[in-house]
Amino acid sequence: MGGAAFTNIKNEADVERVRVDSQNEEAHQVCFSKRHNGLFKKAIELSSLCGVEIVVIFSPADKVFSFGHPSVEWVVDRFLAGNRHRQPSPTESHREAAVRELNW
């Protein structure tokens, strides 16, 4: 199995993907249950640091786990509609309001 390089805010790590088949499905479930909180934490960091809308949906064994900013439904609906205009984040809106106030 080959490794794939991923970059996060701390360092680069090689991650090997686990092939899902009937013999290691249970191992895959255990691995996911240990790591899904970390995956969602990284999604939150990416969303707040870069000011992006993000959605992560994963369904092992018909049990859905999801994270979305500002919400899963909002991001999915926007994606399906082909709407490419970005909604300003609350931080951006607050910053813009403060700049306008200072300019008065």
UniProtKB/TrEMBL annotation:
It comes from the Eukaryota. SUPFAM superfamilies: SRF-like. Residues 84-104 are annotated as: Disordered. Residues 23-71 form the MADS-box domain. It is found in: Nucleus. GO terms for molecular function: DNA-binding transcription factor activity, RNA polymerase II-specific; protein dimerization activity; RNA polymerase II cis-regulatory region sequence-specific DNA binding. It holds the Pfam family SRF-TF. GO terms for cellular component: nucleus. InterPro entries: TF_MADSbox, TF_MADSbox_sf. Residues 92-104 have a biased composition (Basic and acidic residues). The keyword Glycosyltransferase does not apply. Keywords: DNA-binding, Nucleus, Transcription, Transcription regulation. PROSITE patterns: MADS_BOX_2. This is Agamous-like MADS-box protein AGL62. It comes from Canna indica (Indian-shot).
